[in-house]
């Protein structure tokens, strides 16, 4: 049985800094976003002011909505579509900016120019009183500071400390040091001061956040160049691309529905697990993109 991933308590600033992805292997394996500040995120719980949602779907039969959640450290997009009907209804029910809690899975989209954008695919959304929003924000600030302290101790070669921490935190902190050695941890600590003032009630939940400070990140040398695909892999790619083109051409919004594409590919003898591997390879190569959850298109058709 696959265990449900824990929902990390994080701030918008840390989500904005997540530029690295760790993809799981195997069927139904989880993927994670890695942050410079010790986060290894699959699901998150965030608190802040949620704006009214806007429809960004092109196909009325496959609605897709997006809103923006803002906390004192920054802002992050919150989305929901037809695959998340309850969350979509909750998102559409937000008619004015108000305090809210959002639980969902994080998603990283890379633009053709190399820019990275993080969003939350909502599982549930709840409007709450400011007191409850502040309580959850306080929890996120506390856990973020604890993780920063853990990274600082590991960087100094000191023991993790007397207070026990989850094993997941130690693994994520170690990976953050390896991947993001030059991350601006003092800058994140400084940005949390505004969140502390919100928790203390000295600023309103609906106050705009200060401009985000620059996150300075030192990247390790790039990994070795992946060998060219074999003839068999190229044949698989050609099959997937051809069927993606057919599904997209037959749709009303020019997108290929992921589930329909996988079903078509399966009917041609390519197992779903293998097809997902091929799609991942094509996405990493910039040939295919998923600008809307569950909707695929060829990258050279970008608007």
What can be said about this structure in brief?
By secondary structure, the chain is α+β, with helices and mostly antiparallel strands.
Could you describe the 3D structure shown?
With 303 residues, the protein is α+β, with helices and mostly antiparallel strands. It folds into 2 domains: 7-199, Nucleic acid-binding proteins (OB fold (Dihydrolipoamide Acetyltransferase, E2P), Beta Barrel); 231-301, Winged helix-like DNA-binding domain superfamily/Winged helix DNA-binding domain (Arc Repressor Mutant, subunit A, Orthogonal Bundle). The protein has 8 helices and 13 strands. It has helices at 12-16, 85-92, 130-155, 167-179, 185-199, 231-250, 258-267, 272-284, and strands spanning 7-9, 20-22, 32-34, 40-41, 43-50, 54-55, 64-71, 74-81, 98-110, 116-127, 256-257, 288-292, 295-298. It is globular and about 60 Å long.
Taking pLDDT < 50 over at least 5 consecutive residues as the criterion, the unreliable ranges are 212-220
The ordered H/E elements are EHEEEEEEEHEEHHHHEHHEE
Number of helices: 8
Oligomer: single chain
CATH architecture label name of the largest domain: Beta Barrel
Strand composition percent: 15-25%
Q: What is the name of the CATH class of the largest domain?
A: Mainly Beta
């Amino acid at each position: 049985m696959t265990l449900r991933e824990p929902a990390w308590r994080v701030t918008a600033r840390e989500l904005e800094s997540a530029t690295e992805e760790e993809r799981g292997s195997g069927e139904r394996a989880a993927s994670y976003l890695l942050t410079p500040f010790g986060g290894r995120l699959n699901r998150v719980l965030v608190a802040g002011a949620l704006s009214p949602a806007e429809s960004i779907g092109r196909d009325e039969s496959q609605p897709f909505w997006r809103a923006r959640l803002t906390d004192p450290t920054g802002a992050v997009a919150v989305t929901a579509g037809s695959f998340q009907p309850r969350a979509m209804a909750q998102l559409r029910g937000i008619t004015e900016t108000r305090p809210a809690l959002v639980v969902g899975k994080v998603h990283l989209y890379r633009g053709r120019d190399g820019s990275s954008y993080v969003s939350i695919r909502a599982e549930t959304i709840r409007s709450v009183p400011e007191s409850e929003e502040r309580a959850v924000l306080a929890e996120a600030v506390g856990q973020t500071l604890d993780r920063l302290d853990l990274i600082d101790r590991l960087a100094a070669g000191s023991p993790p400390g007397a207070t026990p921490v989850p094993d997941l935190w130690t693994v994520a902190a170690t990976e953050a040091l390896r991947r993001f050695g030059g991350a601006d941890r003092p800058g994140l600590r400084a940005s949390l001061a505004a969140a502390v003032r919100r928790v203390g009630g000295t600023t309103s939940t609906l106050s705009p956040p200060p401009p985000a400070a620059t996150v300075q990140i030192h990247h390790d040398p790039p990994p070795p160049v992946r060998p060219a695909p074999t003839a068999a892999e190229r044949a698989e790619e050609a099959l997937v691309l051809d069927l993606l083109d057919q599904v997209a051409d037959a749709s009303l919004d020019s997108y290929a529905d992921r589930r329909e594409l996988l079903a078509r590919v399966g009917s041609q003898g390519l197992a779903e697990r293998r097809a997902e591997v091929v799609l991942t390879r094509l996405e990493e190569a910039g040939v295919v993109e998923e600008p809307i959850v569950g909707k695929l298109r060829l990258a050279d058709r970008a608007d």
